[in-house]
Amino acid sequence: MEDNFRILKPYFRGLPLIILAMVIGYLCARKYLNYATPMFESTAKLKLADIGDGVPSSNLFKDLDVFVSLHRINAEIEVLKSEVLLQKVVDKLQLKTRIYRKGKIKTVELFDQSPFVITHGKIDPKALDQRFELIFSDRIHYVVIDPHSGNSFDGIVGDTLKMKNMELWVQFNDSFLLQNPHIETEDHFQFEFISKAAQIAHLRSHLDITSVDKDVAVIRISYKSAIPQKAAAISNALAEAYIQDYIENKFLAANTTVAFLERQIESVFLKLSSAEDNIQNFRDTKRITNLRQETETDLRKISQLKIQKTNLEMNLSAIKDLEKYVQAGQEDFLDLAPNFEAFTDLLSTEIIKNIKSLQAEKKDLLLIYTEEDEKVQVIDAKIQDLTNYLLESISNTRKNLEVKYTELEKDIQEAEKAFIGIPEKERILTQLNREFSIYQESYNFLNKKKIEAEIAQAANISFHRIITKAQISDQPVSPNKGIITIVAVILSMFGAIVCIAIIHMLKAKVNNRQSIESNSLLPIAMLVPFLNKKNERESHFLKEVIQLEIKGLISDHSLLTIHSFDQEEGAKFNTLHLAKAFAMQERKVLLLDIDGILHHDHLAAFPQVKHMSLQDAKYDRYTKSMMQDLMQELKVSHDIVLSLNENVLSQKSLLIMKMATTNLVVLDTRKSSFKKIMETDLMVEEYQLPQVNFILNRYAYNPSVIVDIKEFIESIRQRLKSK
């Protein structure tokens, strides 16, 4: 906390200067605001047409226009900034000519408050954007001064004034003068004719067009001008020009669209009729009733035939495999196990059962009889008959299936002949139908758009709306008096703070005890504050005398030297009051004045203190031993010998410091420079001085800058007086 206060101390001292700078900044801001040209702003709000409301032209061709912008609000803002609309505003408000009334301090544009009207005929382009001087000597005569050549031309109100670069007519605005008879006409004016590029550039520089919100189709049109009437007029004129331009474009687009659609509808109708006739003729020629149903019936028939063919093909394949298997194992037929899955008639099943029965009977007989026995041979013959019959049956079945398969293939081929030419018929019919559909859709679309265009043509209104008209502003938007005043005051305050900080760094004074403690190993013996009252001084120095004795810096018959580098650092003040404090303790005190700086006035206030001056030239020739004998003699005869010198580097001063009991070097927080701390350290090291301590004079003294200024002025006055 103490460190922070120490940092802020210079600023507390400079508080009057900071306040003075803030007051000056405030006064400068007020003076600037008195002469600054105020800018007024007027705002008009424009609601864009909603796609769902009415029949706006932006929606009329939505099916035809493939380049519709997704950022419609931004597009409309750019339209409002376009040169076309701004030129309409210029033409409507007659902004091609600007007239000014010239004053001693500033020039003011008159706009609609001009007492006269100026027009020009043939004009040189170089004369555009040039400000001409116009001076009325009376109600009839005037003088125009060319800014280029400086030539003056005399004119009469109502007559043509021929100049080198243009023809000029000046006429009084009678209607305005009747309403404002107090307006002065015999005055100094200025005028200029603005080129087209300059007009547009000037409007754009003061125009601000933004959307209220990105999702809200409301546009804010704001214009700034030094004339509040002009700001409101331009904002309203631009909004009205936008709506009027919208109506004109919509009406023109509707007329053009209706004429175009009528021609297209007539042409498409003829093509549609031709497409209908082509479809009818094709159906009659190809005898087509319903091509889809006829094709579906034939496809269903072929599908059934192909299913039958597939079944026959599977059966035929199975019977062929059975036939091959049986023929391959005909010699060992009884050992075969054929698969009769595709040959499942009852007769075949019965034959197989009989063969197996006879085979079992043969096995039983062979248990009793041999192979040559008649009974066994009869059974073999029966088995052979049944086997041959079965083989012939399988072969006949295969042949029958092959015949059926062949006949079925012929039937399928005959049925498929009905589809010959159908894809071509269907392709041609599809083309004819597609052509008819295209013309039909075009015809319907064009008729629908014609109706919309006729509605738009009949509705000669705008679906954009001015929801808020620009009003003449009473309060300027710039300069902002409050902000400018506050900023000026704050900048002045910071400027003063920076100046104080710079001055504080440049001064590099011993401002506090930390400056000594952080840069020197020599201790501080005394901290002497600024003492303004007598009783405070006596009390403080009595306390300091006791503390010096406690610290062991003084004792009986000791020599105490007090020195400073420059005058007014407090060596004299501290020496006199220490001497008085010692005297108040009833000690015999001798005040030793080395250079004779004490006058009678100084000593008169301390009658109890003895005084001795070493100013005599003989003391300058004393050797160290002679001076030591003198000091020893003085110490024996007195309790305390105080030596005072305001030039620590003088010959006698260094000699006495060498033999002193304690040496005190006075540094003043307001007078002593920072480098004197290091000079003291160097002096002590060089001369090996004993017991050197610091006295910090005017400790924690933080006077006002005003006090410093007074002291500075007083010091100058004293120097001049002494001279």
Mean of pLDDT = 80
Q: What proportion of the residues form beta strands (DSSP E)?
A: 15-25%
CATH C-level name of the domain at 510-722: Alpha Beta
Q: Class by helix and strand content?
A: alpha/beta
Q: What is the rounded Rg?
A: 63 Å
| CATH-defined architecture of the domain at 510-722 | 3-Layer(aba) Sandwich
Instruction: Describe the global form.
Output: elongated
Task: Give the low-confidence spans.
Answer: 52-70
Looking at CATH, the homologous superfamily of the domain at 510-722 is: P-loop containing nucleotide triphosphate hydrolases
What level of helicity do the residues show?
40-55%
Q: Going across the major beta sheet, what is the strand order?
A: 14-20-19-15-18-16-17
Description:
With 723 residues, the chain is α/β, with parallel strands linked by helices. Among the domains are: 2-35 and 479-505, no CATH class; 40-250, no CATH class; 510-722, P-loop containing nucleotide triphosphate hydrolases (Rossmann fold, 3-Layer(aba) Sandwich), CATH 3.40.50.300. The chain has 21 helices and 20 strands. The protein has a seven-stranded parallel β-sheet, with helices on both faces. The chain has a six-stranded antiparallel β-sheet with strand order 3-2-10-5-6-7, with no helix packed on it. Helix 9 (291-328) packs antiparallel against helix 11 (374-416) and helix 15 (534-550) packs across helix 16 (571-584).
Can you summarize this structure?
This protein is α/β, with parallel strands linked by helices and 723 residues long. It is built from 21 helices and 20 strands.
